[in-house]
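Lab notebook page, bench 4
Experiment: in silico fold of construct C2
Operator: M.H.
Input chain length: 307 residues
Purpose: comparison with the prior construct
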Amino acid sequence: TLIGRYYSSLINRFLRNNSIKCDLYFFWGIGCSYALPWLSTNNINKSWVRLHGIDLYEERQNGYIPYRELVFKLVNYVIPISENGKIYLIDKYPQWNLQNKIILNRLGSKDYGFKQNNHKYSLSNNVIIVSCSSIIPLKRVDLIYKCINLASINTRISWIHFGDGPNRKHLEDTIKSFPPTPNLSITIKGQTLHEEVITFFKQNDVSLFINLSETEGIPVSIMEAISFNIPVLATNTGGVNEIVGEAFDTGILIPVNLEEHKISKIISSILNGMNFSPRIFWENNFNKHSNMKSLIKNLNLSEHDDS
């Protein structure tokens, strides 16, 4: 309630100071969008709420998201970033008839330039594998380490992880309990500026990007990886199957509960000969500029829709 009241006071003050009707676009379905129940509708034309993962799936908020029914009732359009999210909304809330309110629009990532990876050895003649996430239980960074370690028995690998979090000590303890092979070099970068991650992708020939999360929406980190033509190994959760898979030529999609030794074999297969061209799929589906143009077109159409 306090969050909703706070943001509504800011928005209402802005609306009172402007004589024209305004459109409201909420980028998240939690937080600022909680203001909707307390907003004065006199100066509001249309409103939209975009939904990602943590603000979409109630299961990720211990089964409850505040003001869900009120927000969906008051807003004109709901914008999930994945087909999985769209289906979830329709199936989860059939009583609210959301079909006519939903606009599917993928996020996409910025084009930082094409890099034709040849997936040869670099960083002291090691294959480079990158992961990027918070170090929290659902991201299973410790599992990433175990699988890469198994894969490094016959291949020299440099594993670079960007991100930090409360489970870092657990990860470090796991590495101590299961020491790396002589072929594995490990670098836990910790909290890293986004610009530094992008620079790393630009300057290094990364052979594989890994995400083994238990739950996801469609990670921007995967969008950015395939924009650099880096193949991805990821778990089939949330909307990940809409960006990762052999059918898209972007990488390999695996079950969430696949065993470590099977994951390590897939890693080895990718490193030792499987070829992908993920940049093409990114250009056609996850280019931020193109997707934003599509969203703006939809919003403009909505503005002139009096039905």
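Observations: Residues 302-307 have pLDDT under 50 and may be disordered. The longest helix spans residues 288-303.
Next step: discuss at group meeting.
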